[in-house]
């Protein structure tokens, strides 16, 4: 029995010399991760409706990439930014890569750059 184990140990490096063992996860799938995230965010945004509550949108969309709060005379505005398009391949998400969702007093009033510009 000891001879079989010894022979196997000696032959293993030769038998495995053509094999590639991947250690460290899905590093090759980096690009598909952000593409999937952007696609998922665009899908959710396409199903939004005016007057949805802040809580229901966050429950569907998840944590925003950026978050702003503005107090105006006509109400409290909260803006959530979700990444929807890549502009630079630097690995950093910026607001220009995001779509803003605009809430007034806890209710969705619009999304996109034009809705954000109105506040």
Automatic annotation (TrEMBL):
Keywords: Signal. Residues 1-17 form the signal peptide. It holds the Pfam family DUF3192. InterPro entries: DUF3192. This is DUF3192 domain-containing protein. It comes from Alteromonas pelagimontana. The lineage of its organism: Bacteria, Pseudomonadati, Pseudomonadota, Gammaproteobacteria, Alteromonadales.
